[in-house]
Each structure stands twice: as structure tokens, then as C-alpha cells.
Amino acid sequence: LQSSNLGNIGIIYEDERNYEKALEYYFHSQKIEEETGNQNGISRNLHRIGNIYKVQKDLVKAEESYFKALKIAEEIGDKDHITMLTANIGSLFLLRKDHKTAETYFTRSMKIAEEIGSLDDIKVANLNLSELYQNTNRPVEALKCYKAAMAIKDSMFNKEKNNERPTTPKIRNFIRYSLTKRPLLPEYRMFWMFMN
Length: 196
Fold this sequence. Notes:
The chain is built from 10 helices and no strands. It is mostly helical. The longest helix is centred in the C-terminal third of the chain and has 25 residues, at 139-163. It is globular, with a radius of gyration of 18 Å.
């Protein structure tokens, strides 16, 4: 639980673009996951750390983190996480203009997303492939993937609207509201100071 809370605080710092603080919390969370042997937690923290390195344009460290995370996700059979990781690895290769390798990872991400029926990941895979095809002068394929992604986005929006499912910003606002109504434990005081 403590590791999860630290990871969640890292996510908030990441959302606020305070990448150094986010890394600090992710590494702290990672240490706890390693001590407890939680392979899923280790893989997800490595993924988050890789995301920060990617934003910071440290593609070597991002790739290293992603591949470590992918290896663990494959070992434990976490297909949902494999889908996200292969998409991120593909985007690294796209940044490096290694289009063939990027396409391999984007296609793998799409295949697994379709296997598990993850509409959000299918949408992301289509957007990634659309960008790749656009960059490699394949406008017909780019448009096809883009339209597929937008159709899924519209479908998901309508489903969410009909179900009135809370979105991430709504959840974060609820957390902020909840924190104002309860006394804070010492380890969360710093978190609360940041939020205000």
C-alpha cells in the first residue's frame, strides 16, 4: 500500500510536469516493490520511470527502463501492460526515425490490444500507426488508422457519458477534496502542500 501511494504521488508530480520529484517518488516506490518482490509493481514503476526519461529526451535510459519492464510483464503474463509498453517502445523508435522497428512494436501492441479487447489501447495503437504511416509517406494507411482511432474515441466518449463513469480529473479533484476533510498523516503533509 505504501508503495502504491508513493507511486500515485509520483503520478501527480508527473502530471504537474515536476519530473524530478516524480522520479524521486517512483524510485522510492520501486525500492519497496523490489524489497517485497512485487514483480507487477516493479514493472509498472520501471514503465513510469521510462516515461519520464522519454519526456526528458533521455532515450537510452527510457529504452532501458521500458525493456526491463517489458521483460517482467512478459514473465508474469500481464498482457495489458505489455500492450502499453510495446506502444511506448515503438514511440521511442519512431523518435529515432527507426520506422521499421517502430512499426514492429506498434503492430505488436495492436495485436495484443485486440486480443484482450482493450479499446483504449487499440485507439492508441491506431494513432501510433497513423503517425508512423504519415512519417513514412503512406497517407492512405495513415488516414485509415486515424479514422479508426477517432471512431473508438467517439464510442468510448459516448459510453463514458452514458455510464457517467468518473474520469481521472474527477477522481483527482475528489482526492483533493477528501484530503481537506481529514487530518493528514505526516508522510502526506508534503504531498498536500504541493497540491495547494
